[in-house]
Amino acid sequence: MVITSALAALVMIIFAVAGLDPIGNLFFWMSSITAISVIVVEILVSIAVIVYFRRVGGGNLWKTVIAPAISTVLLALGLYLVMSRFNLLAGTVPDGVDPSLPESAWLLNPLGWFLVLLPFIFLGVGYVAALINKKENEQLVKDFAS
After folding, report:
1. How far apart are the two ends of the chain, measured CA to CA in Å?
2. Which of 40, 54, 78, 105 has the fewest Cβ atoms within 10 angstroms?
């Protein structure tokens, strides 16, 4: 809790020192990144349901394969739409581009590309960290799963 609060304070201080707008920048950037992150997690959970029931069996076909597969596809479509219009959501459009026009989809300034890809960067970092620490966390996973 203390680390989270300290990190949040640090981010707010950086934004204040940089003279960035707390609503136009901090709020919209962070909420847009959060939306992408939540959708990615929901996709991973839908895939995990299919994988889990393939391994252990049980459940009916609708709940263990069809519904999670449909949700994966629809969530992936939603993720595509959110990411393609990230410039409109987060205000990270390049100069001279009207983000409200359909042809401006996927037109992001460099900061916009960094922000839209940030959840995937951290997903990769987390995956690598999990692989490295697999043996150390084995008991923790057993305790959590029991």
Report:
1. 26
2. 54
**122 is a domain residue:** yes
- Spatial separation of the C-alpha atoms in residues 57 and 71, rounded to whole Å: 20
Closest C-alpha among 24, 9, 33, 10 to residue 116: 33
Q: How far apart are CA 28 and CA 22, in angstroms?
A: 9
Report the domain count for the chain. Answer: 1
pTM score, whole prediction: 0.78
CA distance 27 to 21: 9
Q: Which of 126, 117, 124, 122 is nearest to 90 (CA)?
A: 117
- DSSP designation for 93: P
Quote the Cα angle for 56-59-64, to 5°.
85
Residues 6+ away with beta carbon under 8 Å from 135 = none
Share of the chain above pLDDT 90, in %: 37
Q: Residue 115 falls within a domain, yes or no?
A: yes
Amino acid in the structure at residue 109: N
Domain with 94, as residue range(s), is 24-145
